[in-house]
Amino acid sequence: MRTVLDAFAALILIMAFTAQMLRWLRVLQREHYEPAAMSRFLGRWSSPQVASAKSAERTRAKRPVTLTHVLVVILLIALFTRVTALVVVDSALYGILCPQGLSIKGRTSRLNWTRRLKTVAGVTTLLALLIGGLGLLAPDPFLGAVVVVWAVPLLLDLSARSLEPLERRLANRFVAEATSKLRRIAPRVIAVTGSFGKTSTKNHLADLLGSNRGVVATPRSFNNRAGLSRAINETLGDDARVFIAEMGTYGPGEIRELCQWCVPEIAIVTALGPVHLERMKSLDVIESAKREITEMATTVVMNIDDGRLARWPDTLEFEGKRVRTAGSMNHDASVRVAVVHDQWSISVDGREVVIVDQIAGVQATNLACAIAAAIEVGVGVDELVSHLGRVAPVANRANVVAASSGVLVIDDTFNANPASALSALTVLMDLKMSGRRVVVTPGLIELGREQYVENLAFAQKVSARGCELVVVGRTNALALQTGFDGVVRRFDTRDEAVDWVRTSLVVGDGVLYLNDLPDHYP
Fold first, then answer.
1. How does pLDDT run across 233-269, given as a tens digit for each residue?
2. Taking the domain 399-514, which CATH number applies?
């Protein structure tokens, strides 16, 4: 009988470990294998600020008691009283059921069993077997297995950290191939970075230059070491004459390393803001990390509507760089795309060259940076004016469409930040409509200590403009509900919120979908 019970205990603990692995491997993969992400997300899921929203409307509730809390208390009692059976059952329940809401399969993104994921999973399993095996030497043979179930995020953290040198060596082969290809083809390299606006600026520049110039731009958001080398190896043809490389960063040194093998002739910096503040801790660190893109460039284009970037030109010119400034509101910008009612007045070096209708979903400062860079490539102003009709908005960046129901929909679901959120809200307010204005959002993320304040401030702006607020998920629910003066509707998932919009809004109404968090966020 004892043997049967031991086998059953081992089986349910293995099931619990497997369930935890599937959950947290998905989080690790979605967070680009960053080891520190494990502790951040464990905290978010284990002790969320608000309860789950199972009904359309819910009052605010700080730090609800979750199943994880209950099981931790039971575990401590069971360990103190040395009730082994309770320890095993409690741990199995935790492994199989917790954190509640973090699904095993995933709703928005499933596990992609890549070579890297399999490697991390294998190393973590070996660590688990080692701990479990050592536990067999303890007075309670199940103690090691219990520790493993509760410590899966920590084990994944350790595995990811230990594998970083190996992953870098494996990636070096692709970087070397990309470096060789760049040297052989020798295109003019334009590098684009910024806290936001870099993908749009990159695409606008490609639109303005046109395919007949042999222009190749990195696809989507391939902006890190692996993505950039892959883009070069897979998309850069022998006829390429201009290569536009988007460069992102999670910390100091990353862009500098990219520029050492993908050396830019022209560098574009679109904006500085509190994006990835959670990782980089301060705006000064963000500014320093972004400035690395200028070190090897001979020409620098920057948006001087941004107060921090407006301080760069003098220093860069002193360093011997050629500087071309861009902007929308700053009259000193060399290339200015000024907003005049529903039109843009485009000026180059103080001379107005054209007045055109605004393109919905295109930000003036991003377009100004693209025009400035195109001029530095050598495209004439008249030719650029003739190419403005090619410029198109990037998907999921404040695009306005009319749904079949007649409701006007603003899709701004891609990586919102405080500046873009306010801009999208302005678009909602500027819509020519007479009905309800609704904002559907999970809030803004990766803002570190500023996240609560920024989300609270955004909710206050939504409220002040007379809009309704629908909050998705729990990540920023407390801040958004606190900042909004009125009833806040809450839903667990975006799909539920979309269903509410479809059944509640009619012709004459408008909705802004701001940001869309993957389901590894609470």
1. 999 988 899 999 999 888 889 999 999 999 999 999 9
2. 3.90.190.20
